């Protein structure tokens, strides 16, 4: 039948990544396009044991309805984990979500009326752009450099636009892998005070550092509960569990709980209890270190292969962590057009434009290094270099 | 800090049930208030085994990101299950959701602009009322009788209001337990053709029939993909898994997939694979029959106790299935005021007003019989009868 949809549906479009992932499922394609963790690193045996333990002894609570806020022992665990990162919180100020993506949706639902302005980095995580767009937000894009969002441009954006929200991924940002400096974090926190605007800090990659000094999350510099901190177990345990969390103050938490209740009642009880068991009964620090070692190796393999093979004219970021790096080609090249040729050569990436809320990045592309084996990385970079050499 | 929320937040209020459940957590209270299945009936051992099998042999796909549509073998299983109910569909027309509640949220997101009209039964499921309200819908309430929604009133509502959506729970409705007759189903399907309006059929309780003849879902009478069918594993397997599904045509499915992608990427992979394993390796028919036998016993226990003890002036439904029955008291009694006294007597229910989108039901109350043991049901009804006898 012909449906009469809501106005916002005009804004809900298929993500470029989604369409690309379909193309790259062709056999033989080495895909640097997705944002998947390495399945070789999943704690399969440990999760199996944890699930078994949780269901032992007639523990029906693992299969029953649960509270909207989330499993209390897991929120207690996260309170201590946040403390170690310099974030003082309480279990009552943590909401368990179905991954960070749901956190973004709940926050957009609570904050965004059609036409409201949201400050995003340029480039930014495309899943966040999609969500804000689906609530009919207007974007104010602020450029970034290798020390994070540009401060003067951010202040100008706040001054001129009075946005509802700022959305930032300060650490190993998707798509560039870049990290906001310590000094910049202090300055951004001060700007939030001056302009009294809430900021969403999306931190899925914070644990994935392969070199350099650790920097506290932006939230650690928060002075008045202005920063809403999001993170996830998708990169440290496994994404198929769909477990993330939000840290914020009591006023916003009360609204978030109501929004989540209407959205899906609560996050799965079994998965929450099993992940809590896993976190408290296994060497999680060792597990995360193993992920760091492996991803660091893959990053190095990719960077070294690019150094050897990429033609002059291409430049790229050298991130200290995360899952992505970002390649910039000369202005005259269009990475979306180039992608067809790349797929014909059996290698894939995400064209840069997808990560810009208001255009830009047509000559850029994102490469993922966490989901391919080192031998595939070597081979895929060779294929890509061959293609680029024809144009540069 | 002081947040500037979106306009819709004014509509997002704490559910009465949520607040009540807190009160009824006091020790010694026999609660007929919640809508929980009996934890004694959960297939704990089977799920434990299923989860183990799914994680065996290095199956990392169970912990990896999955497709937004849901795990294909589960959608194939559901296609066959739907077929048995008279619903012809295909895996591509089934979306896996985090329980039915998420299905409602996704549909409201796609259909409802502020001020749009939604036809609901009077009374109706309060979780649905909450969701539509959070998208700033206007309600058009249509009365029901023991054969379902009143047809003439429904036609008048469609004629006068041109609603965006109709929302109905035709089988063992929450809160009354009543079921729409076969003839009424045919007539409603015809009205949908005449007025070209989509209808959401919410069917969480369809499998829970304890007496009488089975009736096909409303969707079985659908002529032009006008009926959007929702169901869930919450009542037949376990609610803590958060697994539901939507059946609809290809045009709407395309939009639903995009909306779900922005909302939380996809439903948990592990849980989908484990439930699929459970459904295909165990005697699920026998398991559901055991639930039917037990819930039927509890329903009978409640009805017999009410027959024996409730004073003249109270009347109630005698549903052939589901988890609830509905008590009507004389007009002068207010069940929300009475609740405090009931809790003092260590028994709880949900006051009727919660289930009316536009007021009504102040002299009614909902009783759940699935979550209490028969001995608790006897005792709880005795306490409630004692209270009612003081007023009747």
From TrEMBL, chains A, B:
Superkingdom of the source species: Bacteria
Record-annotated Aminotransferase class I/classII large domain positions: 43-384
Coiled coil: none
Keywords for the protein's UniProt record, in alphabetical order: Aminotransferase, Pyridoxal phosphate, Transferase
InterPro entries per UniProt: Aminotransferase_I/II_large, Class-I_PLP-dep_aminotransf, PyrdxlP-dep_Trfase, PyrdxlP-dep_Trfase_major, PyrdxlP-dep_Trfase_small
Presence of the UniProt keyword Transferase in the record: yes
Keyword match Transferase: yes
Molecular function via GO: pyridoxal phosphate binding; transaminase activity
Gene Ontology process terms (BP): alpha-amino acid metabolic process
Requisite cofactors: pyridoxal 5'-phosphate
Subunit details: Homodimer.
Family of the protein in this entry: Belongs to the class-I pyridoxal-phosphate-dependent aminotransferase family.
Protein name: Aminotransferase class I and II
Source organism: Desulforamulus ruminis (strain ATCC 23193 / DSM 2154 / NCIMB 8452 / DL) (Desulfotomaculum ruminis)
């Amino acid at each position: 039948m012909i449906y009469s949809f809501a106005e916002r549906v005009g804004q809900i479009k298929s993500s470029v990544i989604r369409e690309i992932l379909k193309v790259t499922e062709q056999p033989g394609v080495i895909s640097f396009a997705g944002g998947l963790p390495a399945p070789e690193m999943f704690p399969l045996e440990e999760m199996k044991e944890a699930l078994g333990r949780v269901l032992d002894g007639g523990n029906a609570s693992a299969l029953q309805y649960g509270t909207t806020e989330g499993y209390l022992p897991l929120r207690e665990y996260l309170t201590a984990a946040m403390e170690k990162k310099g974030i003082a919180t309480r279990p009552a100020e943590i909401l368990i979500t179905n991954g960070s993506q749901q956190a973004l949706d709940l926050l957009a639902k609570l904050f965004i009326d059609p036409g409201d302005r949201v400050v995003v980095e340029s480039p930014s995580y495309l899943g966040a752009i999609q969500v804000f767009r689906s609530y009919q937000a207007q974007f104010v894009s602020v450029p970034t450099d290798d020390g994070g969002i540009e401060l003067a441009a951010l202040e100008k954006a706040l001054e001129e636009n009075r946005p509802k929200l700022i959305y930032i991924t300060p650490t190993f940002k998707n798509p560039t892998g870049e990290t906001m400096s310590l000094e910049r974090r202090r300055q951004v926190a001060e700007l939030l005070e001056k302009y009294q605007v809430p900021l969403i800090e999306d931190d899925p990659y914070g644990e994935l550092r392969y070199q350099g000094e650790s920097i506290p999350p932006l939230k650690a510099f928060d002075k008045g509960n202005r920063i809403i901190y999001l993170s996830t177990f998708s990169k440290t345990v496994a994404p198929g569990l769909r477990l993330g969390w939000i840290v914020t103050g009591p006023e916003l938490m009360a609204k978030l709980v109501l929004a989540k209740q209407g959205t899906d009642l609560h996050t799965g009880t079994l998965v929450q209890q099993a992940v809590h068991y896993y976190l408290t009964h296994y060497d999680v620090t060792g597990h995360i270190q193993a992920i760091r070692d492996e991803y660091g190796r893959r990053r190095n393999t990719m960077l070294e292969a690019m150094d050897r093979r990429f033609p002059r004219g291409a430049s790229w970021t050298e991130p200290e962590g995360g899952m992505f790096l970002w390649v910039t080609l000369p202005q005259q090249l269009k990475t979306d057009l180039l992608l067809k040729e790349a797929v014909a050569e059996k290698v894939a990436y995400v064209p840069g434009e997808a990560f810009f809320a208001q255009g830009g990045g047509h000559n850029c592309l994102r490469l993922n290094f966490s989901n391919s084996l080192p031998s595939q990385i070597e081979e895929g970079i060779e294929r890509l270099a061959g293609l680029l050499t024809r144009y540069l």
